[in-house]
Amino acid sequence: TCDFLTRILEEAENKVASISSIRFKIGDKEWENKYKMTMPGRFVIQKFLRQAKNAGCKYIVLEVTSEGIRQFRHKFINFATVVFTNLGKEHLESHGGFENYRNAKLKLFKATKNVHVINVDDENSKYFLDVPANKKITFSIKDAENQKFKLNLIGEFNVMNALAAISVTKNYGIDFETCANALQKVKAI
User: Fold this and answer.
1) Band of residue 49 on the pLDDT scale cut at 50, 70, 90
2) Local structure of residue 174 (DSSP, 8 states)
3) N or C end of the chain: which has fewer CB within 10 A?
4) Nearest to 171 by CA among 57, 9, 40
5) Using an 8 Å Cβ cutoff, are 69 and 101 in contact?
């Protein structure tokens, strides 16, 4: 989702920074995420945010993990938009059960009051829909709009992640054609 989102924002001619399990990126500069964690510690994130701001980035995309939330790595960041893609059975041992895992993810939504983007195909979406926000945007593969885009990656999870990215960027005024153009160019994550 982070990579799709970054590519769409860039296709719309924005300068973007992002952190994901794969890489760090500020504008055209990319480097591998060697921290062996999707969401590095607060000092690394804050330094990165400062570098992105100094580089003139308009948007910053962060992959936020339940483990990172549990360790307060998301603190002191004012998120404009958060995305709920899905909940799986991973990370249960570190959280002490599924409910604790879900509650960790919910903390990010409770801390973000502006925009919530939610995959309503996931059975846990009701918990995220209940958290107050200024704006709620939902997406679904089952009730998709009649707009088509080409994705060169296989798997329903890639389609869901692309729908999440489209939903976010639509809120920022990026048209569907720009989204479709960016997604069609993605050959690999």
Assistant:
1) very high
2) -
3) C
4) 9
5) no
